[in-house]
UniProtKB/TrEMBL annotation:
KW Hydrolase (keyword) present: yes
Name the record gives this protein: Nucleoside hydrolase
Entry superkingdom: Bacteria
Keywords: Glycosidase, Hydrolase
Amino acid sequence: MNAIFERFPYRVPASKRVRVIVNTDAANEADDQFAIVQALLTPKLDIRGFVATHFGAQRTETSMEQSFDEIERILALMEMSGDYPVYRGSAGRLNDEAPIVNEGAQFIIDEAMRDDAEEPLFAIFLGAITDLAAAYKAKPEIAGRLTAVWIGGAYPDGGEEFNLGNDIAAADIVFGSDIPLWQVPRDVYKMPRVSLAELAVKVRPWGTIGEYLFRQLEQFNLLPTHSPRWPPGESWNMGDSPAVSLLIDDQNFDCELRHAPEIGADMGYVHSGARRQIRVYKSVDSRFILEDLYAKLQLFHELQGFHF
């Protein structure tokens, strides 16, 4: 457990804690960073390690390596370098004929197959779900030994969505597996909406990591390569943070069980009812997500001994 939690003003019962693997395309945009920090500052989560994954080849051929570097940067800024292992995941889409079990996928297998752990295992996927598909194809037995939470896809009919589009075949493998899956689709993960003014007031003041979270998003917002419609210019969707918040409180009253669809090459869904049921979220509590993040950033800053 992170030593900082010993100085938190509350305790989490040991029976409530869960093991967590964080799989992230951290260098893709600017919101993965917020989810990573929130996970690191959540006492309920026993983070076993991070896996860096790709975010497609549209902008760079080294997206996984850039994500790996970004995870390491965040840990360094929080003075947690060496506290958590960081693994390299998939550098690109799954090769259906000969899936490569990279070190990230192997880590998922090894953690899932442990017999000495009492805490349930969750793996959260904040980008393409390539590494889980590779792990499953190599070791199908992991299906009964972890729950996956994926930020991706769309409902009810599917369609274009960034995380799904970066590896459609991998998502279809996971949907066709027996892995317990919580899906947070596009219309839901876009709910936690913030303004840059809000982040300037509630994130930026809280030490080195608060300043970094705000500044990297503000700088990304100014990139000249953006389209006229996205991003909006003065706001952002914290689209990856729901995966963390649902491990704090699973909000099981705001989801439904649906048979996993088959996924076509156009990202459309075929609802045959032949596959097992998955949990699909209909909404998330944006207030809970954001206020929890703000409070933990402030606590972390104060407990580090920094003062204005």
